[in-house]
Amino acid sequence: MSQIKMPTVDQAQIAPAVPFPKFEEYSEKYKEHIIMERRDGVIMLRMHTHNKPVIWSIALHRAIHQAIAEAARDPENKVMILTATGNFWVAYGLAVEKGKEWMKEDDCAQRAAVSQEFFIGDGMPLQNNLIFDVAIPTIGAITGPGYHMELALHCDLTICTEDTVMIDVHRWMGFVSGDGVNIAYQEFMGTKRANYAMLLGTPITAQQALEWGMVNEVVPRERIYERAWELGAEIMRGGDTRSAWRRWMTEVMRKPLKKRMAEDFAGAFAMEMYNYMADPGVSHNDEYLSEMWEKAGIEIPDWTTLPPMK
To answer: Mind giving me the DSSP string for 5-30?
Structure first.
């Protein structure tokens, strides 16, 4: 049997490795949805809509997981902060105007299309990226009342403002709680409390979240960003001499969450999508949420009158 001759370096002329993402490039790429800032190895991703509180939309939904993935692949980022803009976390969606639907879901074909492309296509990596693909410590900084808190709860550390109120939006819109909030609630507050919060759509205050172990700290609103930077700087102590410690601590910290995600996430997401396909009365019209905010005692101001953040 003749010996296989491998090509030499000169013969192969291997192309150089694909470069890592550059902060200047991806921060510009996502700036309409996520404003990024970096300080001494700590990167902050601040979700926004025109530098005002987030309006939950298809575009933002897609941008979040893509931006997180690119930032996580940049070796210059050692710690990641995920936060939002203004006095809310996610409190606004797009109202459905007659003849100007932002997402068509009137029949099975339309629902199947958005289910595959938008909810599963973007919704699953939205949760998976933070837990499985970001190999640096993460900090979720919740800026106030809202829903989709699982994005912050799935971070390694989570802080929130004193007036934070967490609500599972699914019950109010008629959806199964299957796109990640179920994972966060059951993992961090326990099964009975999670069942109550999901089935009844009950609000969870900042103090309850602290007592139940959902968040690490409750801080004054005016210090939420500052405290996130402080925690990031503390994790960065030792600089590059602690890079291995930071890398492998992510594996230790996330093992319980990874296990729950592997066991429960895909099946629960599929249940939510079945619910969406089977019940024609369920839709993503955010006007349904008026009762939710009223029962939580939270007044949501007119987004159009809010000033951009300075």
So the answer is: PPPPHHHH-PPPPPPPP-HHHHHHHT
